[in-house]
Amino acid sequence: MGSYLVKRLAASLLTAILSSIAVFLIVRAVPGDVVAQMLGQSGGSGSQAEEALRRFFGLNEPLYVQYLDWLGGVLRGDLGQSWVRGQPVMEIVFKAFTVTLQLGLMTLAFATIIGVPLGLVSGLFEGRRIDTAIQAFNILGLSAPVFWLGLILLIAVSSLFAWSPPLIYRTPFQNLSDNLSTLLLPMLSLGLLQAAAYSQFTRQCVVGAFSEDYVRTALAKGLPMRVVFAKHILRNIMISLVTFMGLILIQILGGVVVIESLFALPGLGRLLITAIETRDYPVVQGALLMVVFSALLVNLLVDMLYHVIDPRVRVDA
Amino acid sequence: MSTEAPQLMQSDPKLSGAGRSRGALKRTLNFMRREPSFALGLSLTVLILSIALFPGLYSSVSPTDIDTTAALQPPSAAHWFGTDELGRDIYSRSIHGTRVTLSIVAGAMLISAFFGGLLGVVAGFVGRLTDMVCGRGIDVVLSFPPIILGVVISGVLGPSITNLVLALSIVYIPVFFRIARSGAITETSRTYVEAARSVGLTGRAILFRHILRNVMPLIMLQYMILFPLVLQIQAALGFLGLGVQPPTPDWGAILEEGKDYILFAPWISLFPGLFIMVSALSVTLIGRGLQKRMNR
Predict the structure, then answer these.
(1) Tens of pLDDT along A130-173?
(2) Which end of chain A is more exposed for a tag (fewer CB within 10 A), N or C?
(3) Among positive and negative, which fits the CA dihedral B13, B19, B23, B28?
(4) According to CATH, what is the number of the domain A90-306?
(5) Is A214 touching B (CB cutoff 8 A)?
(6) How many CB pairs under 8 A join A and B?
(7) Residue ranges of domains in chain A
């Protein structure tokens, strides 16, 4: 376990560093550069204003110096200042992240509660009518664009129940019921897709397990289906289901970008888009870094959990 | 399927071209009878392709004609899907958007299948340092959730069709890379590769003449499986205003325009979304059918 942990952490760390370089470079891939864009037509190159701005943003340094400066800040927990809002990026990003995290965890819970049981039923009754119905749900759920589903839900609740979610976001500590009713539709629109994905995956696991020797043996020695299912199948597919949970969480982390924009939630995705639009690069970098690091962390946690559930798994397995 | 054809030819040289295609047709028809969902997917795809190729057959109204006297009209006999805030016909915009949207998705995926597939096959076949360097690079791309990377690339570079295609193709290179790499690793350990080596074939010849040909079906199947996903991401980027710019009709872009009128004129958003869903659905059904066939 010890050496595995070290290897796994080293791999994650390497990816984290490479990703941070990518984050840093993406922002600098703009045709022209930030200063030129800020000055627009009025500045003209080589002007004093351009020089001053360059120095102010630290853009007069070579790229690697800029990167190391930024990385040093990141390690100290300092992501710089927002060029637009003037606040520390760390503060802005962290605040947005809490919104995204809450939505993400709620969606994950919803997808798991709906998706896994559906998948189990569908796998157990492979080829029956209920399996066909659940598979139809899966395919439809996977085909509908998330944001479109969000739009449809908005139309549906407003025309059927004459209800629309509160326009201003409140944290759960300010007003829990407002908070939850704001997040309800975003959770549903993201969650249905993920529930469909989870259900399809669970079904595959169950169907796969049925063709395994240990299940055939267990059934052949006369164990009741109930016991085989609970003790043999469930326990063996659990590990795949947990891994998939991590994958889904990462998917949700991406999916929130669109959903947050649609429902005007002040989360990480919307922050990222606004920051890109206003060319607020320290915020873009900060938000991106937060997304990438959370995705890496989720992957790492899933791998660790793997170990706890099934000690047979080793690093190169 | 593509691997089957040359084998058939070798095993029975007398079989005429017409006979062969009739046999293939019969097999396909039989398969469609057993798998009605595959048949449904195939017919829907044919329909959608015909819309993409000949939009004029389905709609005679221009998708960009502005008529402010007919703005925000609900669906009617004159405007089947209603009109948008500028009085443009949503039916015509959805029909003409088919070619725009689908060619962006298909083109971007071709690019990522080409580069991802090539890199993957080479990495899997050569192994060692090449494999490690490629693998790390791919890990970095994979550490970004797909939509986020798409948003950042097309957002930072500025919204245009070229940047959208670039963003989508970069996002999906890793998927093709992984499939091609694992396929190439499996193929490299097969006896025929050893045989080819022993008769003196160069690595390059083995790679391009044998391994690539056997990995190709995997890449093609992956293309089908990914298509609905990429379509949705393309639409999402369009919806965020990062894709095709107005007045060009594109499903995601129409949805973006309809967003502000969602409660007064829901039809603007309803129909293009249905087009996306049906296209995604039909390709998914075909992909599932092909997967079943290949597994057998």
Answers:
(1) 999 999 999 999 898 888 999 899 888 888 888 877 777 888 88
(2) C
(3) positive
(4) 1.10.3720.10
(5) no
(6) 133
(7) 2-75, 90-306
Cα–Cα distance, A40 to A33 (Å, whole number):
11
| Residue A255 pLDDT > 70 | yes
Query: How is chain A classified by DSSP, letter by letter?
Result: -HHHHHHHHHHHHHHHHHHHHHHHHHHTTSSS-HHHHHHHHHH-TT-HHHHHHHHHHTTTS-HHHHHHHHHHHHHTT---B-TTT-SBHHHHHHHHHHHHHHHHHHHHHHHHHHHHHHHHHHHHTTTSHHHHHHHHHHHHHHHS-HHHHHHHHHHHHHHHS-----SS---TTT-HHHHHHHHHHHHHHHHHHHHHHHHHHHHHHHHHHHTSHHHHHHHHTT--HHHIIIIIIHHHHHHHHHHHHHHHHHHHHHHHHHHHHHTT--SHHHHHHHHHHTT-HHHHHHHHHHHHHHHHHHHHHHHHHHHHH-TT--TT-
Residue of chain B nearest A28, judged by CA positions = B156
User: In this prediction, does ipTM exceed 0.85?
Assistant: no
Output the pLDDT for position B123. Answer: 92
Any chain B CB within 8 A of the CB of A251?
yes
Mutation choice for A interface testing from B48, B134, B156 by most A CBs within 10 A: B156
Residues of chain B neighbouring A262 (CB-CB closer than 8 A): 239, 259
Cα four-point dihedral sign A30, A34, A36, A39 = positive
pLDDT score, position A40: 63
